[in-house]
Design goal:
Layout: H1 8-18, H2 23-27, E1 31-34, E2 41-45, H3 50-67, H4 72-101, H5 105-125, E3 133-134, E4 141-149, E5 153-156, H6 164-175, E6 180-183, H7 189-208, E7 218-220, H8 225-233, E8 239-243, H9 246-258, E9 262-266, E10 271-275, H10 281-293, E11 303-309, H11 310-326, H12 345-360, E12 364-366, E13 370-371, E14 381-382, E15 385-388, E16 404-410, H13 413-421, E17 425-426, E18 428-432, H14 436-442, E19 452-455, E20 467-468, E21 471-472, E22 479-480, E23 489-497
Parallel strand pairs: 5-6, 5-8, 6-7, 8-9, 10-11, 10-18, 11-16, 15-16, 18-19
Antiparallel strand pairs: 1-2, 3-4, 4-23, 12-15, 13-14, 17-21, 20-22
The structure holds nicotinamide-adenine-dinucleotide (NAD).
Nicotinamide-adenine-dinucleotide binds at residues 156-161, 183, 185-186, 224-225, 228-229, 232, 243-245, 248, 251-252, 266-269, 300, 399, 401, 427, 474.
Subunit structure: Homotetramer.
Domain Aldehyde dehydrogenase: 29-491
Protein name: aldehyde dehydrogenase (NAD(+))
């Protein structure tokens, strides 16, 4: 095992040094950074105070006033270069994600690939950003809508996608003509510092190639909730895209609403899958195992509730239990590991609390115990847990950010569909079926009420081409692909009179 034998801090430092970040930035500061791989400290970074944050936001606002005037395809060129720099840094940044967030190697790399993909998407978008021309009732008039840059885009991100969430917002915001301020999770500042350094490299090349870009176009604010609050409260931030728990969204949402700022809220999920009598069980097994155990159950889209039809329950559930018992849990840096650590002790305690509550509610728990505690006393590895529940009660209706899969038997499709929707969260969902009527019903108006509804794939692992987000307590925001860019711009409706008379709308007469 390589839990405590690798010098994770040294490795993280080497990666940051390779990106041109001075050692003082990750070695001298008030905020300790721990790797969940070993549980040990790997660095310390400097937090900003609220006053410093406010000054930095003002400077980023000034940058917006210039950046909005740069033609969108030229803005896209900067994001194209960011994509190139991310390609060059993919291995290093992916490794740093694994060290700091505990993701297995392929998921660390996958996260950086997602950043590259959104850059590609945004570059194409920079030559679109189109409005409509709309039929007008008045002769010699034209009516159209135009999309304009909005202002400083605030980005608050969670520990579990420490860099991809930034890029989803940053790439779109930049081509839309906005400047950006990023408040990353206080649990993952090193990957944020690395991403900012990669951005600076792209910016340098952009300017060296003869383009102009203002100073402070992208600002990084390291710190905890108070720094996030400074961003949320600042009058010169017209949009905050905040990713994290529903608890955080409840604090942030009303504050933004009170000053009429826009919010893109990407909050907690409690994602389900329905396994029907006609499901391909081999495919289902893989789909369920990845969605429920991948990233140690620490994805917002992780599968947490499984409704299995009574005719396939006794075939599927024992196979699932076998997969749970044998899935390789260990250092995410080692080849072959599929389940890495929980982020910290609080996550472990939360998991144990949920399992105890499930037992109390009549559940039968398999797995869930702590592993590798002797090798790394401050790291928290667990055997993923399957909990067979008599009904959907207690902790099943809450999001516990850990690998717990609640399994419930059903006999009637409509009941399973109702259970899918009967939780406060509405992020992702899926159905495993070969019955076309069930599949279509699931994605129809009377089907899943989630922002993501999949057929024959699990609920986790979205592509950047689609708009990402969920309903109800998940917050209602959409980011990434499709037309999510519209959330980062302001829309103006323009009517142009190219005649020499002034007909009024709705036939109103006002002759003076
Ligand atoms: P968290 O809510 O503890 O923290 C998220 C971010 O919000 C951090 O940067 C934190 O500093 C900041 N924050 C917390 N309170 C704040 C406040 N009052 N004002 C301003 N900022 C504040 O979440 P976490 O533990 O880092 O991440 C896990 C949670 O995030 C889970 O609930 C998960 O489902 C959710 N998540 C959702 C999505 C999505 O797209 N829907 C994606 C990833 C994670």
């Amino acid at each position: 095992m390589t839990l405590t034998t690798i010098d994770l801090g040294g490795e993280a430092g080497k990666i940051l040094a390779g990106l041109g970040v001075p050692a003082a930035v990750w070695q001298e500061g008030t905020l300790s950074v721990r790797s969940p791989v070993s549980g040990e400290k790997i660095g310390s970074v400097q937090e900003v105070g609220p006053d410093e944050a406010a000054t930095a936001i003002e400077a980023t606002h000034k940058a917006f006033l210039e950046w909005r005037l740069v033609p969108a395809p030229r803005r896209g060129e900067l994001v194209r270069l960011l994509g190139e720099e991310l390609r060059a840094a993919k291995d290093d940044l992916g490794r740093l994600v694994s060290i700091e967030a505990g993701k297995i190697v392929s998921e660390g790399l996958g996260e950086v690939q997602e950043m590259i993909d959104i850059c590609d998407f945004a570059v194409g978008l920079s030559r679109q950003l189109y409005g409509l021309t709309i039929a007008t009732e008045r002769a010699d008039h034209r009516m159209m809508e135009t999309w304009h840059p909005l202002g400083v885009t605030g980005i608050i991100s969670a520990f579990n996608f420490p860099v991809a969430v930034w890029s989803w917002n940053a790439a779109l915001a930049l081509v839309c003509g906005n400047s950006i301020v990023w408040k990353p999770s206080e649990k993952t500042p090193l990957t944020a510092i690395a991403s900012q350094a990669i951005f600076e490299k792209a910016l340098k090349r952009y300017i060296e190639a003869g383009n102009t870009a203002p100073a402070n176009l992208s600002t990084l604010l390291i710190g905890g909730a108070p720094v996030g609050e400074a961003l949320v409260d600042h009058p010169k931030v017209p949009l905050v895209s905040a990713t994290g728990s529903t608890r955080m969204g409840r604090a942030v949402g009303p504050k933004l609403a009170a000053r009429f700022a826009r919010a893109i809220l990407e909050l907690g999920g409690n994602n389900a899958a329905i396994v029907t009598p006609t499901a391909n069980l081999d495919l289902t097994l893989r789909g369920v195992a990845f969605a429920a155990m991948g990233t140690a159950g620490q994805r917002c889209t992780s599968l947490r509730r499984l409704f299995v039809h009574e005719t396939v329950y006794d075939t599927l559930v024992p196979r699932l239990k076998k997969a749970y018992a044998s899935v390789p849990v260990g250092s995410p840096l080692e080849a072959g590991t599929l389940v890495g650590p929980l982020i910290d002790e609080a996550a472990f305690n939360g998991m144990q609390k949920a399992l105890a509550a499930a037992k109390q509610a009549g559940g039968t728990v398999t797995g869930g115990e702590r592993l590798l505690a002797e090798e790394a006393t401050s790291a928290f590895y667990v055997r993923p847990a399957i909990v067979e529940m008599p009904e959907q009660t207690g902790p099943v209706v809450e999001e516990t950010f850990a690998p717990i899969l609640y399994v419930i038997k059903y006999s009637d499709f409509d009941t399973a569909l109702a259970l899918n929707n009967a939780v406060p969260q509405g992020l992702s969902s899926s159905i495993f079926t070969n019955d076309m009527r069930e599949a279509e019903a699931f994605v129809s108006a009377r089907g899943s009420d989630c922002g993501i509804a999949n057929v024959n794939i699990g609920p986790s692992g979205a592509e950047i081409g689609g708009a990402f987000g969920g309903e109800k307590e998940t917050g209602g925001g959409r980011e990434s692909g499709s037309d999510a860019w519209k959330g980062y711009m302001r829309r103006a409706t323009n009517t142009v009179n190219y005649g020499s008379t002034l007909p009024l709308a709705q036939g109103v007469k006002f002759d003076i």
